Amino acid sequence: MAWPCRGSQSGCPQEGRPDTAIHWGGALVKEPDYRSNSLLRGLGILECFSADSPELTLSEIAEALSITSSAAYRFVVTLEREGYLSKHKTSYRLAPRVMDLGYRYLASQDVYDIARVPADELRAETGFTVHVSVLEGTEIIYVYRALSNRAMVSNVPVGSRLPAFSTTMGRMLLSDLPEEDLDRRFDGYVFERMSPLAPSSLAELKPLLKEDRERGYVAQRSHLSTGTFSIAAPLVSRHGRTLGAINLSGHEMQLHPDEALIGKVRATARTISQML
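^ Transcriptional regulator, IclR family protein, sequence as received from the core. Prediction below:
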């Protein structure tokens, strides 16, 4: 049984999935699968909710997970009583406890904790919005935002996921990966471009990443949001690993990528990197 809520590119688990076959001593043996299908179903329910579907009925949840309404009801009632879902008339929506888990995740990340003050300082110095993100699979996750008070602002909420190949921070994060890692991550990936300027394949992306790595920053118009310009630089640990990225974002009529502004972004990135 497929779990459609997680999306086709996230490796959805399947109920009744056979044990994983591995080689041991020249023989093919099975590795026990210790995953809990009940837990996976509960997580699958939480992942069904999105900005496009903030509220779902019990029948919609059951249909999304391809389970019976009675089975869905048991999971939904449990999640509601534990504070992860709230009921509104005949539909359900995510409850504040889910957000609490998200903030616990952020608080556990060195990048989030260390980058906050320098990001705030860069926003105060330039007047533009500053974002910090980390890489997960083929997406970036926004873990911090210092929001500008300008009338025209780049406003991507914390927790948002965007395709790495179409973002300046994503390009910085991908540029640090070995070629074999890139091949693995993008195996079967569909490059859904929102701008003709974005690469349409891994073959087009790789030379751009090489240039990004050599340059040390990315400055370009957004491939996702019309009229937005962004400057990004990597956050590199003392061990030489790129752990995150920072960008400065604003309307292209206000943010001009001169050497001084690029230098401020890179200097902030270096300040954060020295503490990672």
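The first strand starts at residue 20 and ends at 24.
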